[in-house]
Amino acid sequence: MAITTTQLLDRPRSTSAAGPATAYAVMLGLVAVAAVASVLIGSRTISPTALLEAGPDRTVLEVRAVRTALGVLVGVALGLAGACMQGLTRNPLADPGILGVNAGAALAIVLGIAYLGAGGMTSYVVLALVGAALASVAVHAIAGIGRDGATPAKLTVAGAAFAAAASSWTVAVQLVDQTALDVMRRWQVGSIGGRSWDVVVSLAPVFAVGVVLALALSRTLNALALGEEMAAGLGRHTTRDRVLVGLAIVLLAGTATAAAGPIAFVGLIVPHLVRTRTGSDHRHLLPLSAGYGAVLVLLADTVGRVVLPPSEVQVGIMTAVVGVPFFLLLVRRGRMGL
Amino acid sequence: MPVTTTLPDEPEVRPDLRTATRRPRRRRRLVIGGLVVALVAAFAIRVLLGDYTFTVPDFFRILFGEQLPVSTFILMESKLPRAVLAVLVGLALGSAGSLFQMLLRNPLASPDIVGVSLGASAAGIFALLTLGLRDGAVSAFAVVGAVAVSAVVRWVAGTTGGYRLVLTGVGVAAAMVSVVQYLLARSSTWDVQLALRWLVGSLNNVPWSTVGLLAVSLAVLLPTLAVMSRSLEVLELGDEAAAGLGVGRHRTDALLLVGVLLTAVAVAAAGPVAFVAFMSGPIARALMGGRHSLLAGALVGAVLVLLADHVAAYLVPDVVLPVGIVTGAVGGPFLLWLLARGAATGRTG
User: Do A320 and B178 touch (CB under 8 A)?
Assistant: First the structure.
């Protein structure tokens, strides 16, 4: 008779025509296709048989394999972080790039290199996490001041302002400190090329914690999606929940920024597209966003390699090319409750 | 007899009325006068002080053609063009920003925040790097870029001002930054000075020809703006009220176009100096006691750019930071403060 809270929360909001099993299968298939394409296609396109014999092609493949692994990592992190952010803030425009989290991470890394003598991937990751955390707290605190609280529009503007200020400081520090400039230059636009396995290995633990935490919080996000008061009424510790989700976002966005520099719009687009198919149940939204995040980053990177030869369009620029029209469409359709 | 009972009242009322209408006008005159003094002072600081100082008599002797070893070169080729450009860029951006904020009735809707500056920047650097154009042609491209971006923003945001406009601008600005970064990354020679100029705005190493070009453009645009801005007070009441008073929407569009052009020529000369257009209006308004004033906005803009450039040049020894870094580092927190105070949330579209 009586429907328990758990049943209420677990009831699917909308069912996709094909059902979740097919959705996951399609997602995994697309990730596999994108990964294979990312390994084989580039300024030098390689046939799969080259894997079997040693030679220059095999070296190229190994370099591309690192790049692909990093792309998967960054894409999963950004897709998940975006979905968590949109759920936590109930803000359709939320994205680690738009809300200034990536800019905060970048500033922290530059400051660390210039004034704390940081060097090496591990210290960059720690710095990125600290910066991402401070930035998200600052942006939300500032946007939350005032009677109407942190509305999507206020958050977006606060994020843009924070990002602008943080990137000014970043450039200023780079100009003063030559080491910081050298490290940051290849990092500026967001790129997953030219990294070694060490980067992937040193990022993996933090990344794994973030992914597990985010996926474990999918029911919490479902409850929070009902609104602060309703969630509290259902017996949730909303403050604790928010802190945990915030932690997951910081871990994921910080990892992605440390690995690839600021890449915007992946966290924005992917959850929206996934939501149109599966509805807003976070138990499916989160894993699917993670997978499609990887697909988007890998495809953007692969297309960027071949679209304007001989040079390469960085993945951060490619995602902006796709992401900005999407962002404008969202604004134009007025789906952020203005 | 009844006449004498009514007459004595009048002299008592009139002085009050007169002072009431006179006070804002006096304040306006005081503020404008004060800003002009501040502008002259800032200009003097920028030109005379720094790591190479000039005395006032020396300054005028060099200005009137006397050749002093080293001094003449430093003043005429480095400090003076820089300071003059700072004034011109500040005037253009300050007036454009105040105009936008006034017409769109939104303190966030300045050309740098709604993406117009970066649109000009992207088109300018495209002309410079990809098409290999120089000076006037680059400015023309910047103008085209600025107009195109404002058309896109206006089309996406619809006729409403408010947050939709600002959000659209944020998105378009992000796209334009990507374009600039891509064009810079693609160019065969990675020139840091060039990148800084077109991404953050810089007055470093400007030739006199750039200054002259901007001066000529402003000599046309600013008087046009002054003539057209007579209808501003009516337009500030809102489109409908203005239409009721006989000032149509096309007047708003024409004024916005002047604002876009002012922004574009300034960006073509010095790059998208961050937040100057955005900060000038609210500062001028606070000084004027809540009233909008284009002239005050323009003067505040010029003072801001001069002081920011002085700080940028001498803050860190041996490093000349671009001016846009300082205005960005100061302007971002200012915008956040404005948001926190709720000043920016009062009117939403």
Answer: yes
The answer, yes or no, to whether the previous bond of B333 is cis (omega within 30 of 0) is: no
For residue A60, the surrounding DSSP H or E stretch is: helix A56-89
The CA-CA-CA angle for residues A204, A97, B280, to 5°, reads 150
| Arch. (CATH architecture) of B95-273 | Orthogonal Bundle (1.10)
> Each residue of B109-124: pLDDT tens digit?
888 888 899 899 999 8
**Domains in chain A: ranges and CATH:** 69-332 (1.10.3470.10)
Q: Assess whether pLDDT exceeds 90 at residue B303.
A: yes
Structure tokens, A264: 């915007």
Cross-chain CB nearest to A164 (options B196, B316, B328): B328
For residue A225, the distance in angstroms to the closest alpha carbon of chain B comes to 23
| Chain A residues within an 8 Å CB radius of B274 | 164, 168
The Cα–Cα gap between A303 and A313 comes to 8
The C-alpha atoms of residue A74 and residue A256 are separated, in whole angstroms, by: 5
Residue B280 CB: number of other CB atoms within 10 A?
31
The answer to whether B174 touches A264, Cβ cutoff 8 Å, is yes
The angle subtended at Cα B126 by Cα B122 and Cα B132, nearest 5°, is 150
Terminal C-alpha separation, chain B: 60
- Report the residue count for chain A: 338
Among A31, A18, A335, A331, CA closest to A157: A331
Q: Which residues are CB-contacts of A77 (< 8 A; sequence separation ≥ 6)? A: A207, A210, A211, A252, A253, A255, A256, A259, A293
CA–CA separation, B159 and B143 (whole Å): 22
Cβ atoms of B307 and B124 within 8 Å: the answer is no
Give the 3-state secondary structure of residue B181: helix
Give B296 or B23, the one with higher predicted confidence.
B296
- Interchain CB distance below 8 Å, B340 and A142: yes
Per the CB < 8 A criterion, the answer to whether B141 and B120 are in contact is: no
Q: What is the chain B residue with the closest CA to A162?
A: B332
DSSP state at residue A293: H
- Collect all residues of chain A within an 8 Å Cβ-Cβ radius of residue B349: 338
- For chain B, the domains span 95-273
Residue A104: both structure tokens together: 């905060």
CA–CA dist A312, A64 (Å, integer):
14
The type of residue at B154 is: R
Six-digit token pair at A46? 């390689």
Q: Cβ of B348 and A153 within 8 Å?
A: yes
Distance from C-alpha of A13 to C-alpha of A22, rounded to nearest angstrom? 17
Report whether pLDDT(B324) > 80: yes
pLDDT digits (tens, 9 = 90+) for B32-82: 999 999 999 999 988 888 777 888 888 888 888 777 777 887 888 888 898
Is-contact B102 B236, C-beta < 8 A?
yes
pLDDT at A188: 63
Q: Which two tokens stand for residue A231?
A: 């969630």
